[in-house]
Amino acid sequence: MTVNNHKKEKCMPLGRGDHAKVAASLSGYSDDDLAQLKSEFEEIFAEIEIRKSSGLEPGYSKKEIEVCIEGYVKIDAKQKGKGWWHRAKLRSQLVMKLT
User: Fold this and answer.
1) DSSP conformation class of 69
2) How far apart are CA 83 and CA 41, in angstroms?
3) Which pLDDT value is given to residue 12?
4) Residues of the chain with pLDDT > 90: what percent?
5) Which of these, 55, 30, 46, lies nearest to 94 by C-alpha position?
6) Do 71 and 41 touch, CB atoms closer than 8 A?
7) Which element (helix H / strand E) includes 46?
């Protein structure tokens, strides 16, 4: 299947190992560093949305986008003191919006 003359990428969703790697990589950050990283993820998401709305490829692989989403979701939930339901809803919303 092609979209805009580009091959549509097939990618497996993140597995448990991927989720664990993201969680482990975030565990060493301070609250200020996490806030900065979350802001960087938001900038990446805005860039992806602009590119997609212009009919361009997002500029990142689906796997890279999903790893960014996972990092963002974990940071957001930690900052807000939310649990698995919040993470699941937010993750689903972002995946539908960005991939």
Assistant:
1) H
2) 20
3) 59
4) 72
5) 46
6) yes
7) helix 31-53
pTM of the entire predicted model: 0.82
Q: How far is CA 48 from CA 36, 41, 64, 74, 80, in A?
A: 19, 11, 12, 20, 25
**Apex CA 38: angle with CA 58 and CA 73, to 5°?**
80
At 28 the three-state DSSP class reads coil
Count how many residues are written for the chain. 99
CB neighbours of residue 34 within 10 Å: 17
Structure tokens at 4: 């805009």
Q: What is the pLDDT of residues 27-76, one digit of tens each?
A: 989 999 999 999 999 999 999 999 999 999 999 999 999 999 999 999 99
Q: Does 3 score more than 70 pLDDT?
A: no
Domain boundaries of the chain, sorted by first residue: 31-99
Measured distance CA(28)–CA(54) in Å, rounded: 37
